Every structure is written in C-alpha cells, then in structure tokens.
Automatic annotation (TrEMBL):
Source organism per UniProt: Halarsenatibacter silvermanii
Keyword Nucleotide-binding annotated: no
Entry-linked Pfam families: DUF6198
Domain of life: Bacteria
Record-annotated membrane-spanning stretches: 12-31, 51-71, 83-103, 109-131
Signal peptide range in chain numbering: none
Protein name per the record: Uncharacterized membrane protein YczE
Annotated keywords: Membrane, Transmembrane, Transmembrane helix
Lineage: Bacteria, Bacillati, Bacillota, Clostridia, Halanaerobiales
Length: 207
C-alpha cells in the first residue's frame, strides 16, 4: 500500500513539473512569435523590458506578488504546487532563452505556427498541471479570490484581468497583436479539452 501511494505521489509530481515545463515552452513560443502574447505574458514581457530583469525573473516576481497579496488579504492556504509553479516557470523560461535562445523566424507562416503551438502547449500544460492536484497557479488563485469576493462571473473577471494585464504590458512596451487575442480566447478552451483527455487517461489507468 505504501509503495502504491509513493508511486501515485511520484506520478503527480511528474505531472506537475511536466505541466509547468509545457506552460513555459508555450510562453517561450508566444514571445518569440513576435505576434503578441497572452495577456499575462504581455505584462511579463513589458515589465522585463522596462526593469532589465529576465523574463523568468519577472515571471517569478509577478507570481510571487500575487501569492503574497492573497496571503495578506485572504490568508489563503496554498498547496506546494502553487509555489513550485511560481518558481519553476521562471527557471524554465530563463533556461529556454539561454538554450536554445531567441527564435524569431522572418517567415510569417512559421510565426503563426508558433502561435498555435504556444496555445496548445500552454493549454495542455495547464491541464496536466491541474491534474496533479497540488495547488492552483497564482493567477488561477487570484481569479478565484475575486470570484468569491464579488458577484461577477468567472468569465467577466478573467476578461477584466486580461485587459488590465495586457494594457499595462503594452504601456510598458510589450507587443499587442493577434497572439494576445488568440491567447485570451483559446487557451481556456484548449485547457478544458485537454483536462478531459488527461482525466480519461487517469481513470483508465488508475492514476
């Protein structure tokens, strides 16, 4: 029994880090497409270009600020996955920008394909990360906090935060483009669809 529990925990831990890595790869693709990123990445990119921090360091700062804010105003308890997500998305991003480095093809079709890949990677990563059940990401926790404190729908809150994050990022010099719109509209549905696939796999294989 103890061995089975250990194996299941290991599987959850692996899913957690696989999800985080895929999310990081998707953000990397978004930024390198130069066609606009999802709203939170627009904020990260804009803040990074303004402060001189790396993209990974900026991601860590933003996630850390959100977690600290929620701890102070709500006393919310987070799972270990929340903190690991905040740390390792930044770590993986900096590693990706170091090896292989920036990739910005001139051919517009390749950049468009990078956008599609970014949405699929982030959506799949979110689904796999959620399936680990070790704590939501900082942004998801922020969405749930405002949902619980207001009468607004989850969708309305998400759209509002997307506009705020994206707007601040653009003011700081980040690129707003078709990728920003695509990220805002498509990542959620992709994550939902992939979560169904992941859950079906887990139910079938008993993990």
């Amino acid at each position: 029994m103890r061995r089975i529990m250990s194996e299941r925990f290991s599987a959850r831990f692996l899913r957690l880090f696989l999800g985080i890595f895929l999310i990081s790869c998707g953000i990397f693709m978004f930024i390198n497409s130069q066609l606009g990123s999802d709203p939170i990445t627009v904020l990260v990119n804009g803040l990074a270009s303004t402060t001189g921090l790396t993209v990974g360091q900026t991601s860590f700062v933003i996630n850390g600020f959100i977690i600290l804010f929620l701890l102070l105003v709500s006393g919310k308890k987070f799972g270990p996955g929340t903190f690991l997500h905040a740390i390792f998305v930044g770590v993986f991003l900096d590693l990706l920008f170091m090896f292989p480095g920036a990739i910005s093809p001139n051919f517009i079709l390749l950049r468009a394909l990078m956008l599609v890949a970014a949405v699929l990677l982030i959506g799949s990563g979110i689904a796999i990360y959620i399936s680990a059940e070790m704590g939501e990401g900082a942004l998801e926790a922020l969405l749930m906090f405002f949902r619980e404190k207001t009468d607004f729908s989850f969708k309305s809150i998400k759209v509002t935060l997307d506009v705020i994050f994206g707007g601040i990022g653009v003011l700081l010099g980040a690129t707003f483009g078709i990728g920003t719109v695509l990220g805002a509209l498509a990542i959620g549905p992709v994550a939902q669809a992939m979560l169904c696939v992941v859950n079906d796999y887990r139910n079938h294989h008993g993990r």
